[in-house]
Protein: Peptidoglycan hydrolase-like protein with peptidoglycan-binding domain
Amino acid sequence: MRARNWVRRLAAGRHVLAATVVTAAIAGIAASGMSGAETPASAAPIASTDLKTVPFEVSGELPIYPKALWRNGSSGADVRKVEARLIQLKLLDKRWLDDSFGTMTRTAVKKFQTSKGIPDLGYVDQNTWDQLKSATREPTQTELFPPAPVVNGKRLDARCATGVALCIDKTTRKLRYVVDGAVKLQFDVRFGAKKTATREGAFSVGWKSRNHVSKLYDSAMPYAMFFSGGQAVHYSSDFAARGYAGASHGCVNVRDLAKIKWLFDQVKVGDKVIVYRS
Structure:
């Protein structure tokens, strides 16, 4: 019973408070000379002294970036021309002449922009392109498309013509270490069997392991240079002992221990690996 009486008193108090607010509002309208039916448009103008301004400040300016002609991810003949000019200035290595605007091309562009005192945007806008053309000459056909090396009267894959490449020919069963179109080393290799074929295509060295042991096959893979998943170029004692009587599980086996020791120290992560058929 007491709880009910308390609720009733609270409700009554709310009604009284609401009436008080309404009364005060009416009194305010009456004091200003406005009736409840009048619209704001008919109200008397408010004195400027009654207005308060709120300070608003903009710090700095929004940057306006120039339009990109070629940027990271672009590809095609025009990108190759940009790369060839950067190679002329020795800002880009020949290995990255590949029609593809990637990380290395972006870095070279930024270096050029810095050298010219322009914003290092990392992409080629019209101003960068104009300055790059002024600082270089028109690339020759040979600069744009270097001829593939010729070994024993036969041309290697054209992708082996620039930069550093492990050029691996499945037809002749040869691996050639090629630098800027010159064959530095050549040796015999063997490949995977039909069910575990060595993949063909253009790859790059992802990582190296001098004393690697395969967890999958529990076999030694010394001087391993991985280029496609678990497939790697590495020394094989089985290949040294049995020759082409056996096969790998997909890797490129080398049987000359002295040569692959030397090769392992020359090859860097990121170097090209081209596996093809001539």
About this structure: The first helix runs from residue 2 to 31. Residues 68-143 form a domain with the Muramoyl-pentapeptide Carboxypeptidase; domain 1 fold (CATH 1.10.101.10). The two ends are 102 Å apart (CA to CA).
